[in-house]
What we know:
The chain is mostly helical. Helices cover 76% and strands 1% of the residues. The chain has a two-stranded parallel ribbon with strand order 1-2. The longest helix has 34 residues, at 17-50.
Amino acid sequence: MTSTDTPLGTAGGTDRRRWFALAIVMTAAFMDLVDVTIVNIAIPSIQRESGASFSQIQWITAGYALAFAAGLITGGRLGDIHGRKRIFLVGIGGFTLASALCGLAVNPEMLVASRFLQGGMAALMVPQVLSIVHATFPAHERGKVFGLFGAVVGLGAVSGPLLGALLTEWNLFGWEWRSIFLINLPVGVAGLILGSRFITESKAPRALKLDLVGVALVTLGLLMLLYPLIRGRELGWPVWGYVSMAGALVVLAALVAYERRKSARDGSPLVELSLFRVKSFAAGIAVQTVFGVALGVFFLVWTLYMQVGLGWSALKAGLTGVPFSIAVSVAAGMSVQQLVPRFGRKVLQAGALVMAAGVLLYLWESEHYGLGIAPWQMALPLVVMGAGMGLIVAPLTDAILSEVPREHSGSASGLLNTVQQMGNALGLGLVSVVFFGTIGDRLRADQVGPAFADAFQNSLGWVAAVLGVIFLLMFALPKRPAQHVEGEQGATERKEPVLVS
């Protein structure tokens, strides 16, 4: 069955199959969200068991984010052109296969390559989720459905680190860290079988064309920037690394020139450059990118600090993060429902300052208590950080999109998701500079703890500075975001809400 964005069961909404379809696509979204956050907590175990270098550890996380970012918009368009169900099934099948390859990796190189593949398959799978919901449910039911989806998003973000800690600690079947990937296999296979039966096919009536040249230029530019950042420290910062990073700017300039020509030729560029004439959107893209950088740096170095520097188990580290996750969820709900309607942009700016205050408090506690710091002593700064983050993440998307023309809402939301992932990948690349750059190459056992603690404190200083930049950039956002209404274009190229990991 093929439709053109006509919801299944609009006549009375009696077809129960749409609820099965909803469960399937939400499970896939949950699987992706968990996979983004579950890996960080297992990184020390992966390093110990596989012998991965510091740069390979960064690629295990950054590779997924990079492939995901590069393919998101194209994945959405492929669904619009060839059918959302078809591309969703290709994505979930490929994601499952890539998860198996990650779990069966015989060396770090294979794991890194499999993570790139996993991110690329997620880029096919994830953009179809809300498009399928939009095409399957009538308008009067979508509010309830999107509320359920928001709950799944929150649950995925909260449960990922804890699930990763439990699977690593339990060491199921002697798999150690491999179980965090292999657990996707039964879920993915079930999603593939049930999705083929219960999801109704739909296509966009007027889908945009693919821009594969744009994708190639974006990917090349990011690789030219990230590769020297991640490998530079190990290789002694060679000259070619600086040349490559400078060349990345040339490639990105070429991307802008090509996108202008592509827009004039057929109106389907990868990046809709006219959006950057909207001041709030341009500033919002900068906020989203820089925020992604801060999160990319923090979450990886936080895990390494607790498990390698302090010598904690994965479970102890995972449980330590629970207050942070709860604070994010509570503050996010309050910001959207109560605070932003009254105070507007000030809520987001307060979030940046509160989160920075939490980071600085964490920095002080790490210095004050040293290697004897306990999880309960970390609770206060983590709650403050989580509250600040919650004030930002929930209302930020509406603030950025509120002044975007209705006909470009789909392109804008897709680009917003993409730059968040790009910022995350860039932050993971910068870990080489702000964290590993302060750690000596050959450490005695008694030097590891102090070295990692010092590197963590250095990283926190950078994260606090980045949050200060975010506070200033937010002055360009609208004081009170208008209610954003999607047009037809937004329905056909709809992307998943901006997520954090």
